[in-house]
Amino acid sequence: MRTNIEERACDLAVYIIENKATVRAAASQFGISKSTVHKDLTDRLPRLNPALYRQVRQLLDLNKAERHIRGGLATQRKYRGEQDPDD
Question: What pTM value is reported for the model?
Answer without folding.
Answer: 0.74
